[in-house]
Structures are given as C-alpha cells and as structure tokens.
Amino acid sequence: MSLTAGSRPDGTRPPAAVEEPTAAVAAATVKESVPRGGAKAGKVPFRVRWRRDRTLILMTLPVIILLLIFNYVPLLGNVVAFQDYDPYAADNGITAIFHSPWVGVEQFSRMFDDPLFWSAAKNTIVLFLLQLVLFFPVPIALALVINSVIRPRVRAVAQAIMYLPHFFSWVLVVTVFQQIFGGAGIIAQTLEKHGWSGFDLMTNASFFKYLVTAQAVWKDAGWGIIVFLAALAAVSTDLYEAAAMDGAGRWRRMWHVTLPALRPVIALLLVLRVGDALSVGFEQFLLQRYAVGAGASEVLDTYVWNMGIQNGDFSYAAAVGLAKGVIGVCLVLGANKVAHLLGEQGVYQK
Question: Which of 245, 272, 299, 302 gets the highest tally of CB atoms within 10 A of its CB?
C-alpha cells in the first residue's frame, strides 16, 4: 500500500500545524497594546481622569480660590519687609510699594536688637512648651476615655458636651473664666462669705501662662478628640479579642493595641503642632493684655499687631512676621525628619 505525502502509516492525516505569527502580526499586536498618545502602560490619561473626577474638582474649586486669595496672594506683600514702606507714598497702599525705598535687611537687624521682640519670643516659646506638655495629651486621654464607654447614648452625650466649647468665641471663654476665677467671681465671693480672703487669678501675671493654657484646654480639647476617635474606629476588634484571649487586661490592651494604633496620628499632629509653635494665639492674649500687662501677655502675634497696626510700622511688622513664618517652616521640616527617623510617616512620605 502506497502512502501519500504527509499521511500516517494508518492512512490518517495529522492535524494541521499551528502557524507561528508572522512579524507583521506581532508588530500589530504590540502596537495595539500601547495606549494612544504615547501614554505609559498603567497611567490613566488626563482626559479620563478629568471625566471621572470633574465633579470633585469643581466642588473644591471655590476652596482653592479662597485659599489663593487669602493665603497665597498676601505673601507678595512680604516684600515690604525689605523696604521702608510708606502707605502714603502713592494714591493707595499697593502702588505705594513701588514708591517706597529699599533698605535691605535693616528691618531684620532692628528686630534682633529689639529687647521687646526677644521678650515676646520668650513668652511664645514658654507658652508653647507648656501647652505641648499640658494641652496636647488631653485630647488623647479624652479619646481613650470616650472610646472605653460601652453605651452609645452616654458616649454621644459626652462628645456633645466636650465639643460645645469649641464653638464659643474667645470673648465668651474669657468672660466665663472671669466670672469663675476673677476678683468678683463665684469662687472669690464664696471664699469671702466663709471668712477667707478672695483672690483674682485673671489679673495675676505670674499665673497667666497657666490660665491661658487652661482656657485652651477647655475650649479646644473636645474638638481635638475627633481625629483620635476616627483613628480608634479603624482599629480591628479582632486585635482586642486576641489580646483578651492571651490574658491581656484593659491597661495591657490599651498599651499594646490602642496606643500603637494612634501613633501615626499622634506623630502627624505633633509635627503640625511643632510647626505652629510660634503661633500660640492672638485674640485670647489681646483680650487679656491690659489685665496682666504686656510683659506677661505679649507674644509674637500680638507684638506684630502692636507694631504694625497700632504704631504703623508696617515694614518692621512684616519682617517679624516673615521671620516667624520661615522659622515655622524649618520646625515643620525638622520635626517631620524626626518622625521619619522614628518610623512614622509624618506630614509627607520620604
């Protein structure tokens, strides 16, 4: 029996071989796999991202405009720190910048030679350190206490009571403290009725730094626990259950589960607080300035206001404010570097 070409000994023909793709087909396949416009693989084109996120972008647009107008455009006015600025050198204050003489770093040299500036800087640093020790841990402790409350209604009432002072103005806060700790306050009158001598903490210059710290704790500590409660809500309950099964009590679970979960948030807020070290407050100190004197209540913010607005020395006030801002940026960068060394993310990643 004769065999035809390509046939098997049993007379059947083998299946057709799969042809290898030609070079043209392979090139076409590679070409189709590359997105149009030369975009890299895995990168979403701007047109797609705009169509997807345009609603969110339009919602944030008014906030961005307000931020530019009130936070970034005024930065251009810092140029007067290098001038002997005279607002009456032209028809308006803006064009007066172009008619004011340049003095270089003369305003900064004057700042370093001014003893009132160093007194205000000393008060600012002392108040910052005091608030960092006495005020910063309070929201953390309150968040831990509220998080340990089991009944939701009790927790909601406690949160509402702690949040409420945040919405009070500093005028109302100072008034409340005046009615309690002032010379004619409730405590002083009660002591006098029982034969004790009264007191007036609101005019005590040596006690002023503790007084303003107590006011800040009462006003803003309740609001600060929101961030920590949000971080605690993200902690898995499985961790607490596993720790309880291993024999860990309430304090052990707090130390080994709760506090490690709060570490990133604590590091972030601590970095931001350090960067805001030279801004301990303005309205709070200005309202109580005449009660305790400028020696105890003068901080950098009130010093800038006093020199710039009251005395009309705009160039010198701008120089102090510019130096304060530069130091604040350096503090943020330094604190963020320390956070990275401790293994935390901080304000931004490495």
Answer: 299
pTM recorded for the entire structure:
0.76
State the burial class of residue 345 (Cβ atoms within 10 Å of its Cβ: 0-12, 13-18, 19+). middle
285 in Cβ contact with 299 (< 8 Å): yes
Tens digit of each residue's pLDDT (9 = 90 or more) over 279-312 = 888 889 999 988 888 888 899 999 999 999 888 8
Give the integer Cα–Cα distance in Å for 273 and 331. 10
Contacts of 53 (CB under 8 A, 6+ apart): none
CA distances from 265 to 98, 170, 193, 256, 272 (A): 46, 27, 49, 16, 11
Structure letter (DSSP) for residue 83: B
> Which tens digit of pLDDT belongs to each residue from 114-150?
999 999 999 999 999 998 888 888 988 888 888 877 7
Task: Fill in the DSSP letter of residue 258.
Answer: I
Q: Which amino acid is at 315?
A: S
Instruction: Give the DSSP letter string of 317-343.
Output: HHHHHHHHHHHHHHHHHHHHHHHHHTT
